[in-house]
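Following up on my earlier thread - several people asked me to post the actual chain instead of describing it. Fair enough. Here it is, all 171 residues.
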Amino acid sequence: MILKPEPFATARLDVLPLRVAYADEMAAVLDDPALHTYTGGAPETADGLRARYGRQTAGSPDPRVRWWNWVLRVRDEDRLAGYVQATVDVPGAAAEIAWVVGTRWQGRGYAKEAAAGLVAHLLGTGTVRTVLAHIHPDHHASAAVAGAAGLVPTEEWCDGERRWERGAENG
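Reply from S.P.:
Thanks for posting it. Predicted structure:
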């Protein structure tokens, strides 16, 4: 069983395990209130991200849960452009995923590429059999990303968001 996030790559992205040292660069990447339209909140400062990244990299206090977080580095630019994350329920062999690409890098297919790469990576670990995401019904771009990653909408809802899912047998 994999205990921590492992790096992986897609055609244009290096997907690197989260480190506190990425906070300064990521604060600039995520510094757009529009990124919070469907999730709430506001952009965090570099200090706020350092604190959050410290908690995330320390891992879940629940031994049955893994917090796997990665940053997205655009290989040709050698710059961070966003992140992907997975909360892995080890006994349930399920991972709930999310993705964010900074506004400057949107519209280039990075979110679709990162999410599809994340799903393939997770299903290839042997730890995860089901991948799911919760998406606001008005967030059409995120729904397109989920679809590109092979997730399909279900009839389940949680806090106003639709559950999308993909099992290992669907891929």
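The chain has a mean pLDDT of 95. That should answer part of your original question.
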